[in-house]
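User: Some background: our group keeps a shared notebook of sequences we're curious about, and every so often someone picks one and asks for a predicted structure to add to the entry. Today it's my turn. The entry only has the sequence so far, pasted here. Could you supply the structure so I can complete it?
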Amino acid sequence: MMKKSFKLDEIDCANCARELQEKLAKLDGVQKVSVNFMTQKLTLEAADEEFDDVLDRVVDFTADEEPDCEIIR
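Assistant: Of course. Here's the predicted structure to add to the notebook entry:
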């Protein structure tokens, strides 16, 4: 299992962060995800062998769901 944190740029509000976290948790391959509005940080856990693919899905989904928010890799 791999766990990494990424900076979020422009997550607008705590409610947006909570909703995004709930939706990301349902994506294939996501074992655990946390979106923290206060620290502007996303923490993702996924299987080692598919981590990069899962991260790509998380980044794409976030871009669609929260167009102003960017995940800094």
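Suggested note for the entry: The domain at 2-72 is CATH 3.30.70.100 (Alpha-Beta Plaits). The mean pLDDT is 97.
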